[in-house]
Amino acid sequence: MNSAKRNTRWLLIVTLLLLLxxxxxxxxxxxxxxxxxxxxxxxDEFQISLPATTPNLFxxxxxxxxxxxxxxxxxxxxxxxxxxxxxxxRDRLTARGAKVINAENSADLIxxxxxxxxxxxxxxxxxxxxxxxxxxxxxxxxGGRLLIAADPTRPASTPDKTxxxxxxxxxxxxxxxxxxxxxxxxxxxxxxxxxxxNLEENAGNYRNVRFNTLEEHPLLEGVENLVFFASHxxxxxxxxxxxxxxxxxxPRRMGETDLSAAVITSENRVLALGDFTFxxxxxxxxxxxDRFLSNIADWLGEDSRAWDLWDFPYLYTQPIDLIQISAxxxxxxxxxxxxxxxxxxxxxxxxxTLSASxxxxxxxxxxxxxxxxxxxxDLLKAAGVxxxxxxxxTATPEADSTPSEVNDGATSSITIAGMGTVGMEGIALYVxxxxxxxxxxxxxxxxxxxxxxxxxxLLQGEVNSCLKAEGLMLCSNGKGSRGLGLGDSDKGxxxxxxxxxxxxxxxxxxxxxxxxxxxxxxxxxxKSEYAVTVWSLDRDGVPNEEDLSGYDVYIVSTGDYESEAxxxxxxxxxxxxxxxxxxxxxxxxxxxxGTFAPVNDIEVKDDTHPLTDGxxxxxxxxxxxxESKVPALVIDVEEWFxxxxxxxxxxxxxxxxxxxxxEAASLIALEDSETNQRIVLGFFAFYRLPTDxxxxxxxxxxxxxxxx
Length: 708
Prior knowledge:
By secondary structure, this protein is an alpha/beta fold.
């Protein structure tokens, strides 16, 4: 029994030794001897230094504005702004005496631009409409200044149909680049849908790029380095103000360096910034950002507008005296409406008072009828204007020739030197006089009622149809006036004379897939030569036959929108006697055969056709990137037209060597022998062409269409 117990005890001991042996072996192999931990110095919290960015505030000493500055802030395009984002800029502008105006909707924006000196568009997420673009382009052309800023961290919001899109926007942000490009492209500026980064020169983060390559320009006076906190790269036909070094790169523009983060164009009137965050608190205090902010405020605060009489009443800079030159009592309507006139002037920060004569240090608004024109003979003569009245309605003229002359017949007329003569009936005359320090504006009409109507028209800015020259304007109420293109005319609309040809541009901008049409580009190219109207399907709806009547040329622009089956319904309503230009990657036309492929460049195939006047055969034009990536239509011209009746076609432009399907037709001129109609078909987005090529091609196309 004792022997059995002893054997059992030894068996247990051996078993335990076998189990412990591997553990002991590992311990002896890896832990030889006793471990002695090293001595570690205690942490001194006061000696710890973390990388920090020191605020660098600029001692802003604003120069007082020489003129009234009115800066409009665009808030009409879903601008992705946070509270106080604009506070630093607003404070700097206010310190310079500028009045800052918020434009909450499209109507406010267009109206505010009449009296503005600068426009600020920050982080828009909704595209600009054709009418808005027209107003902004006219504003800049008139000397106004435009600041555009976008930011990769300020995306657009997804249209909320369910009420739960906040998380979707966080994980799948929608780019706002198409929205900002809808404005920037009108001034030759392109924002890329990217961000700049630098692994070497940055402020604590690779996307916080530090810029040291700065152009010598007043906007960068005193600025040595800037930090942008996530910036798009830009491209323009202007000057790059801020350029990245060889280590500043873009994930979307591989292999490219010298990338621009800020450009200025349009004769130093349009400034585009790739980052918006650097202007906001407290990012504006980093590096020389604050100094740059002050320089931008100086630039925006300057009044560089070329004010003329159609900018009424903002052309005035002093209190205004309203002076009636007639000896008769004031016109009843003028008395009744004087309070309303004062209110309108007050909204422009101006004062209007009745007076018998202009006071010292005051501007003046002189009103009267043509029968009183002898009292302002000197002013009319200086402007080259002659008023001719019937014998019974005027006194005998002075011995020397004066602007008010006697006519033995019954005809009254207005003659403007170098321009011609217009009948006086139904016409209001506006003459601006700046020969002295005071500004004077003369308004003449047939009678008191017509005079008040002329003032109201001027105040409301309804002068687009008026005949304008520097310091002069003639406006017709449409009743019986002839000459100089005003009122009734013996000339037909279809004659190709400047201002007498009516062109309707239909923007097919309501498609499910697409980014932009080329309506704005066509309008910009043609509006100086012709009377142009833009109809947006998205804004104005589908036009009816009455909406489409009375035009000499139709331009239907689909841009880079994908065509839809319903698009062709509008074509059936167009006047077949008018010229027709269909242009887009997939234009308004039913092509029952063809393929689709990207197009990158265009080559001149036939330089003998009027459409290519000014181009040479073999000349290649690179296209900017398509914003929607919708591929362009490729058709077999010979096959398609052999199957479709009587139209004879000429291919004048074709796809270039860098495009898929090179040498396929890109622009076709059609002449239909049955209807005698001319049609131009373009198979790419017109906005992608270089600006100078756009203008030449558009003018050539309209001239050829009008010859039918």
